[in-house]
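Lecture notes, structural biology module. Today: joint structure prediction for complexes of four components.
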Amino acid sequence: MHSGQPAAPYPATLNDVAKVAGVSLATASKAINGRGDVAESTRKRVLDAAERLGFTPNQLARSLLAGRTHTVGLLTSDLEGRFVIPILMGAEDAFGAGQVNVFLCDARGDNIREQHHLKALLNRRVDGIIVVGRQTDPRPSLGQNVPVPVVYAYAPSEDPADLSLTPDNEAGGRMLVEHLISCGRTRIAHITGDPAYAAAQDRARGVHDALAAAGLELHGEVMFSDWSERWGRDAAAMLLEQHPEVDAIACGSDQIARGVLDTLRDLGRQVPEDVAVIGYDNWEVLTTNARPELTSIDANLQQLGREAARHLFKVMGTSEPRPAGTRYLPVRLVIRGSTIARR
Amino acid sequence: MHSGQPAAPYPATLNDVAKVAGVSLATASKAINGRGDVAESTRKRVLDAAERLGFTPNQLARSLLAGRTHTVGLLTSDLEGRFVIPILMGAEDAFGAGQVNVFLCDARGDNIREQHHLKALLNRRVDGIIVVGRQTDPRPSLGQNVPVPVVYAYAPSEDPADLSLTPDNEAGGRMLVEHLISCGRTRIAHITGDPAYAAAQDRARGVHDALAAAGLELHGEVMFSDWSERWGRDAAAMLLEQHPEVDAIACGSDQIARGVLDTLRDLGRQVPEDVAVIGYDNWEVLTTNARPELTSIDANLQQLGREAARHLFKVMGTSEPRPAGTRYLPVRLVIRGSTIARR
DNA sequence: AGGCTCATCGAAAAGGGTTTCGAGCACTTT
DNA sequence: AAAGTGCTCGAAACCCTTTTCGATGAGCCT
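The predicted structure, tokenised, for the full assembly:
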């Protein structure tokens, strides 16, 4: 089964346009790019010819000359991770329907491959690079001798000389507790994921601080294990056994929260009447399908991607000293039925 | 907070290398690319110089000359969709740690924006384009006068002159039923999503055909509505009211299956002992966290992405007539505890 | 010694566009 | 009539690499 059509040829070059219009290369270029020094009648002739031939300028040639390609590289270590995608969308968004295109590279968590991709991107003369990790744990820097600006998103760089943008997990942890308190809860427990993750530790610290600030104490220890629903179910069962008095459970992820909801349901506890539950990440497929729908913390990742892109935009091309350090971007509370009863 | 380091300059050009090595541009190029006609001693001198200067060839210049860029465009209409990502990974994978880089463009479902991105990709002289949709419903073709090969992935093109790769949903539907029958079930119902989706219709047809082939009939009508957990819960409740005899439920998505599992649990039915449940899509976060873990159909999307890339590879550069038509790629059964009791 | 081959190297063009700068020309001014 | 002014346009350089093909020189044969 073949179409038989080999392929349309690439459209005309500027040279063709110039010939058809009966002018020189230089004049054709100026006419098309709207530079001065070309009579209105000539411009029209050139534009007509370009239109007829379907001319579009070859970006390769243009970039080669200009020294800027209007491309950026997005270097990620884990594409399947759900954190990369919103960031990627935000970046694409900020660069806009505009002129910038994004090269996507997935290093699959392999350092060698990352170096390889980096080199490939530089050989293609990208104007900037966004490095996206899948955890909020600091990652090794690409180093300071990269000839284009680099910004680290989600996973900050270990090197303070780099610019990193990462969600403020500590503020998120505080937000969990503050919201529960504002719902009138005082007997709060915290079930979270793998203690080896900075995200787990940072959120737990936020939880602790907000409780302390309100003169409260956590009911039970922070329960660390992994980020699964199963752990949420098991942890909730243990928790209710040892601390049946709890009236709110702050969870370190939406998956954990889903598990917690299941156990509460099995044990006949009403949510949110008896126990309020709050998740983290605002992963829609989990939050909006839960019974009841799950209140959660959204890390504003798309916003983070936009910021990263905007930053690159600002410093691309300039040779000024670049901003450095790690910026913690605000997160956002999304309230649903698991903390506030629907009327 | 500034690093103070403005940016390392771009590395040396071939000209610099030639000068340092004391040879001509041509010789330097030949030495570096391993072409013949250059004395071993000279080659060493050039390579040393290149090493010292950190020379890497400018791909722009190279591409401009060669007429091939070793880049492809990936044009998607919906990045957040979970179908795009595995396909993207498969494509990245097939192009390999090799030479090809991927431009990612998200049209956000907007036709104008898609045209715009297409033009931008062509101006950058990509060697090929992969179009990825978020549904299996056929989508409008980009047309036949695109100067590079195009392959449609997941969402096939409406135009049979294009090459499309899409998962075989009908076979998947049959597989649902065949597996349930092989588990000894005969009283089978089907709950699925939005009837406006080709995926829902194709899978339902597969379910119907496989039942007919086994001399069985569906218990109740096919239940269409939407792809949510909530619908799964509600539909299962209705189903068990009207057809309490069912011993298996084939679901059109994992979300629906999760809802079905919840209702069965609420009603005290054992899974899989009383009722077997099977999902579709093999969305890991849903399947492996379910109680019991959910048997499902995997569309092999990563494989599909690889195939798409491989196809582009094959026809890129050649001017032969291109293969056309829609190819339905095999799907795969992933067995877990919701259909077969764990020992 | 002259003519030959062979290995090695470099000049130049090509790829497609942008930009600088000088040339040509019509028209005005003194 | 000579000089000056202002507007159009084109030649050529440039970006960086690859490739062709002709030039150079050394070594060998008769």
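Point to remember: Chain A touches chain B through 73 residues (CB under 8 Å).
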